[in-house]
Every structure is written in C-alpha cells, then in structure tokens.
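$ ./design --mode recover --in tokens.txt
reading tokens...
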C-alpha cells in the first residue's frame, strides 16, 4: 500500500486497520438521555461491569471506582429473589 507520504510498512498497515471508523458520530442520537436505553444504546459516561462477586454491594463498587473519578450512580442488578446477577 502506498500513501502520499510513500510506502507503508506492515506495522503501519496493521495500525491503520485498527483505527476507529472514519465517522466519529454515534449512530444513536445521544441528545435524549431521559428515554429508556435500548439494547446496544450508547450512553455517555456509563460503563458495564460484569463478573461481580455476589457478595459485592453497591457501596463497595462506588468506593472502588471512586479512585478513578467521580461516580454518579451505581446499580447492581438482582434477580427476583434479590440475589445479585453479577453485573
């Protein structure tokens, strides 16, 4: 492959194939955060954490992630019996 700057090495080609899509705009509108999220919806500043031990509580998670920045909300999903689903 050759670009305006000349031939590319195999490392450059590998890096190019890992670059983000040329369209940085989200395919999902992010301007209505009050509506319920659909599966796969991008919500800014929200992370999913899985594999949480069933003994971990929301306070433990808040304390852990607070060392990396402010935590707005923590929610551990429970089943009908109240047992943590681990995410």
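writing sequence...
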């Amino acid at each position: 492959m050759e670009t305006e700057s000349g031939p590319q090495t195999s490392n450059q080609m590998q890096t190019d194939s890992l670059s983000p899509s040329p369209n940085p705009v989200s395919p999902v509108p992010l301007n209505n955060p009050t509506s319920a999220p659909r599966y796969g919806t991008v919500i800014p500043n929200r992370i999913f954490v899985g594999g949480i031990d069933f003994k971990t509580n929301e306070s433990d998670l808040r304390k852990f992630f607070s060392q990396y920045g402010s935590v707005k909300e923590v929610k551990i999903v429970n089943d009908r019996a109240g047992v943590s689903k681990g995410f």
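exit 0
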